[in-house]
Here is the input.
Amino acid sequence: MSSSGLIRVVSLLIFTSITFLVPQMEGQIAITPSSVTFGNVLVGNSQTQAVSISNVGSSNVSVSQVNVNGTGYATSGVSLPYTLSPGQSMYVNVSFAPLTTGTDAGSVAVSASMSSGRGPKKSRYSGTVTSASAVLSGTGITTTGQLAASPTSLSFGNILPGSSQTLMETLTNTGNASVTISGTSVSSSAFTVGGLSLPVTLAAGQSLTFSVVFSPTASGSVSGTLAIFSNASDAQLNTALAGTGATVGQLTLTPTALNFGNVTDGSSAALSGTLTASGSSVTVSSATSTSAEFVVGGLSFPTTLSPGRSVAFTVTFLPQVSGTASASLSFASNAGNSPMMALSGSGVAPVPHSVNLSWAASSTTGVVGYNVYRGSVSGGPYAQVSSNDAGLTYTDSGVSAGQTYYYVVTAVDSTGTESTYSNQAQAVVPAP
Here is the structure.
């Protein structure tokens, strides 16, 4: 045999040896999910979840055992042994039925063996065991109802005695069983509960809303507690209550009386007054005069005065007939007092006005009288108010108060012929 032939044989033997050293791949199993959480489960009840057992290898496997550990855990839904080919899955039900309250930990473990192999030495791999496990957890709880209040306290702020303020309160059953509310109690008579008809039952997760009213009878801080009685785990649920009876505001009128004196009938006169709040805010809603001859102005209603603030107003006297008039003025408000203002005045008849005119005698021969003319504009035109009066004076009683008049005079002879206008005279009639 040549040396080259020997090398070829050796190479062949080495190649053959390497081929026999490659092992056959085994079957392998996996559990999905690897962690199973049951959460809260009522004692006496159960919850079931499915887990998947899969053959993730390349050979058939035979699932021979499914074992579960931990208090309250069990498996169902599988008949063993069970053969899984590569890529095939089976499902097992795992249940949790807690016996007592508290958290329970457990596990589920699966064992399987290969049922066959390949190649001339397949018996070398038969019976090989593969296993997988998953972690189990759950918590046993008891049946209970639980009440929660929202808000947990009620603050009503400042409220005037005699008034009231309403706030709403909501109760929610946050437990896992029904709750029956049987009664309420409030530690202060300044607070009352409304809109709650008892007894009333709330299912798990259900809510109800009712009102709490604060009605102070005096000034000062008030606190109290609203107690809700039920068969919940906390048999008495307390809500803190607080409010303040505000100091009652006072209203002051300045001055306390207005006297308008004499006012001509048909005209008017106005005087002013002031409203001032003290102690607390005061809301003035209206003003009333007992006589239509006295009218209040300068205010818009309603108007609110903070403590120490003032607002001015006017009262107008409008006499319609002569004589003394009197009335009282009052303001409606939420003040603790009701001040009144006395009003008085006298209506007097208008004073008659006249203009007295006089002139010098004309030096022209034959003058037998004079004509008087009046105008409202300087320089005329003029209107005749007196005809052929032989005297040298004239009283004009047809004038009006507050007006200005302009007068001229002419001389008249026996034939009725008039002279030209005299110089112009002005008369200013005073107002009433």
Q: What stands out?
A: The longest helix spans residues 3-20. The helical segments are 3-20. Residues 355-428 form a domain with the Immunoglobulin-like fold (CATH 2.60.40.10).
